[in-house]
Amino acid sequence: MLFSLANLKRRSVRDLDGELAVVPKLLYGRAVLNLVGQAIEQFEEYVGKPRSEYDSRSLEAVMGDYRLGRCIEACLMTRYSFVQPCLEDLLDGEQLDALASKGISTSSDLRFALWDSANSRHGGFAPHEGRDTFLRGFAEDIGLSPDPALIDTILTLDTEGSAVLTLTGEKPTAEEVIRLYNRGAVQTLLAHSTHVSFHIGGLPGATLKKLYFVAKRRGVLVDIEQAVGGYSLTLYGPEQAFGTADKYGRRLAEVAISLLRTALSSYEHGDIFGTAHLMLHDRNYRFHLTADLLDKMEYAPLAAQSGKGRIAEAGAAYSVGAAVEVDEEAKEEPLFDSMVEAKLYKEYKSLERQGYTHGWRIEREPEPLLAPGLVLIPDFAFSRGDTKVHMEIAGFWSPSYRERKLAKLKTLAGGENETPLILALPKDAIQTFAGLPFPVVSYKTGVRATDLLTLLDAHFGQSEKRMDAAQDRLEALRQLARARGYIPEQEIAQTLEAYTRTELLSAARSLDGDSCRYVSGVGLLSDEAVEKAHAALKSAFANAPDNRIMLEEAGSLAAGALSTPKIDPEALLQLWTEWRIDRPSLFEAYLVAD
Questions:
Q1: I want to staple 286 with a disulfide (CB 3.0 to 4.6 A). Which of 12, 21, 140, 279 is the partner?
Q2: Cα(81)–Cα(588) distance, rounded to whole angstroms?
Q3: Helix, strand, coil percentages for the chain (3-state, nearest 5)
Q4: Sheet holding 516-519, edge to edge
């Protein structure tokens, strides 16, 4: 929970570097436990009473400080609430029915009825000395008992002062309130910080990547940079993200504490510490996050969880008309920190299942890209064969965050090794990132997967190189076909590294010859295998009435002759002109001998 920054009791000190630091007042010890217990009992005395009788200063008196009193009150209000009473709480069913017949169901309706009665009886003003008499007469008119006090009560049931303090859960213990206060005090400072930096040394790459994506998934702007002895991970505050302390700041605080807990559970050597930077009274302050602080908030280090349920990224798909088989164990999609990423991933995986991604497999949470003083963790990576291309999606960032991202990309571009990277940029940001050597796909509301594939093929497809290499593999495929009789088209595509049908047809047209035939849609067949398939079908025609056999049966006969589970008889039919396909209806298809 968050407190008002003005109500948070804190003090200023000089840290070990001589810089101003802020230390929140945290509660612990037996004396404080007794004091908070007294505050709870004091608060309990107001349960069942209206807000008009509640005195918030009573808690301030118990705690001995108005700031502590207000914060303890905020903690208690997580278990208590001021509940607005209604007519049903004070009137019986007969009285409610009488009011309903007059069109009265709320205190507001009752006030309107009272004003109408005053207008009709007293010309709009009822004198004070006749007030009780007037209220009795009004009560009788609407079917209530002639009790002025009852009318006074139900007339104001919907006002703020009439709300009754009510326990909405179990009565809190002093330990629970102290724990809630201590966590709230730390979270309040974190929520109002300009940024929170963590110094992490020697952390495994997988854990570092996990810390980064924990922040991104919660919608917190994050950067990782190389630092002396390790890495520096920075979470940016509300001012950088166009957010507020109540919404974005709350997420920032939760992520900062979660990262500290996760890092401490994964790190075995040296110290891990975080520093929040705040602007208080026009001066810069530090707020140091340490393992001791977690102990005072009663937080244990967060145990690292296994990465189960991730999408399998291994393998390669060849877009030659066949759909890609989906790993049954990889049904759960990863989480995303923006709708742009989630939409692209969903669209791309749909194309991948249909076999239309030209062999590019998408990978979520790739390994970091490193350059001198720089760590960049891209949003996606796309792999095909030995080629791996990273992708960074530029969101709708604040100007300062965009400038930092631009500086990182310039550093990456200036490195010794060329980094295969694609930038996805909002249309209004293209000019800002102009001059970088990375290909760009622009978007307005979302990145189109087809545009991305076009860019991947154009800049990283290496089509000419692969087609040249494919020529050296043709003879090996023909030898294999003569030995086995039949090589499926998918296997040919993999051998020739042909990721689209256009590439496959371009490379495979040279397979004909040396007792082999390439059939589009089928694969490579030896002349002997072609003759076996032809003989099997010819034999079936000899015993078929009307010189026709069902197309499905023809496919099974040909597949059996070629020792393969399934084959497309229509594609195979281009080898023989004496047979044709006849479809007398939508549900029937025959192979016919003229």
A1: 21
A2: 72
A3: 45, 20, 35
A4: 486-488, 523-526, 516-519
Q: Check residue 130 and report its DSSP letter.
A: G
Instruction: Give the other-Cβ count within 10 Å of 482's Cβ.
Output: 17
Is pTM beyond 0.70? Reply is no
Kindly state the tokens that stand for 514: 């040396």
- pLDDT, mean of residues 375-395: 88
Rounded to whole angstroms, what are the CA distances from 484 to 188, 413, 477, 567? 72, 50, 10, 16
d(CA 447, CA 393): 9
Taking alpha carbons only, the member of 351, 317, 378 closest to residue 452 is 351
Model confidence at 303, pLDDT cuts 50, 70, 90, reads low
Q: Are strands 10-14 and 195-200 parallel, antiparallel or unpaired?
A: unpaired
Residue 578: how many other CB atoms lie within 10 Å? 9
The position carrying tokens 């924990």 is: 214
> In terms of C-beta density within 10 A (0-12 exposed, 13-18 middle, 19 or more buried), how is residue 4 classed?
exposed
3-state secondary structure of 284: strand
Per DSSP, the residues of 477-536 read HHHHHHHHSEEEHHHHHHHHT--BHHHHHHHHGGG--SSEEEETTTEEEEHHHHHHHHHH
With a CB cutoff of 8 Å and minimum separation 6, the contacts of 148 are 131, 132, 135, 136, 139
Helices (H) and strands (E) in the chain, counts: 21, 22
**Residue 175 CA neighbour count, 13 Å, CB half:** 1
As given in the structure block, the two tokens for residue 393 are: 């999606």
At position 295, the amino acid (one-letter code) is D
Distance of alpha carbon 118 from alpha carbon 134, whole angstroms: 8
